[in-house]
């Protein structure tokens, strides 16, 4: 098929998918594991940092698709604690630079509609990255935003739960509670109130790119009843058609919330 005909067919298919989704039950909150940047670069004979750059820049486009679909909450998994500790230092430095120069910078533009929230162990980040992200979070905090982006960086789902329980215990101890009182106070709702994502809804749909079929510790508590969608393309190659297919799959499901 000629390139022009292929492009026309693609646009027609996108239009058909959008029409099919009109009036469908769409997720309020989509979480995404942006996986495959390095493999995408390797297949093209490029350096890993090039893949990270394309991946960071691509987030801007994906957020546009989410906003157009009326999805008010998006959470993205950027890097785990293990990523920060075990990967080559040059690669980690480059990824952090992408976070500072692409994501944090773009979110603070006056025309950006997204309010930034952070989730994770920010103490494992380089000072410059931590400061840039905190500044972006502060800058967007007073924004009258319809859309909320949570960036999970230096994140581990098990550590989040441990931190939440520790925070709950510390709070009750400072209030003078006894061990017996504390034991009575440990409920699912009490723990959830101390998670990194407190105040934001649990994800309805979790999308992971790259073909991997696992969550890798992402939102272990929050995604307990989420619908999961695994996409075979790498994150930099994640197209609008792939995104709309994920929404179509979600809309066709009957959510059971553990039943």
Automatic annotation (TrEMBL):
EC class name: transferase
Coiled coil: none
Keywords: Magnesium, Metal-binding, Transferase
Residues that hold substrate according to the record: 36-40, 52, 80-82, 87, 208, 214-216
Annotated binding of Mg(2+), by residue: 35, 227
Record's cofactor remark: Binds 2 magnesium ions per subunit.
Pfam families listed in its UniProt record: Prenyltransf
Stored CDD domains: Cis_IPPS
InterPro entries for the chain: UPP_synth-like, UPP_synth-like_CS, UPP_synth-like_sf
Keyword Magnesium listed: yes
EC nos: 2.5.1.-
Assigned GO CC terms: plasma membrane
Presence of the UniProt keyword Transferase in the record: yes
GO molecular function: ditrans,polycis-polyprenyl diphosphate synthase [(2E,6E)-farnesyl diphosphate specific] activity; magnesium ion binding; Z-farnesyl diphosphate synthase activity
Swiss-Prot/TrEMBL cofactor(s): Mg(2+)
Matching SUPFAM superfamilies: Undecaprenyl diphosphate synthase (SSF64005)
Record GO biological process: polyprenol biosynthetic process
Active site, UniProt feature: 35, 83 (proton acceptor)
Family designation: Belongs to the UPP synthase family. Z-FPP synthase subfamily.
Subunit annotation: Homodimer.
HAMAP family per record: ISPT
Its biological purpose: Catalyzes the condensation of isopentenyl diphosphate (IPP) with allylic pyrophosphates generating different type of terpenoids.
Protein name as annotated: Isoprenyl transferase
Organism encoding this protein: Catellatospora methionotrophica
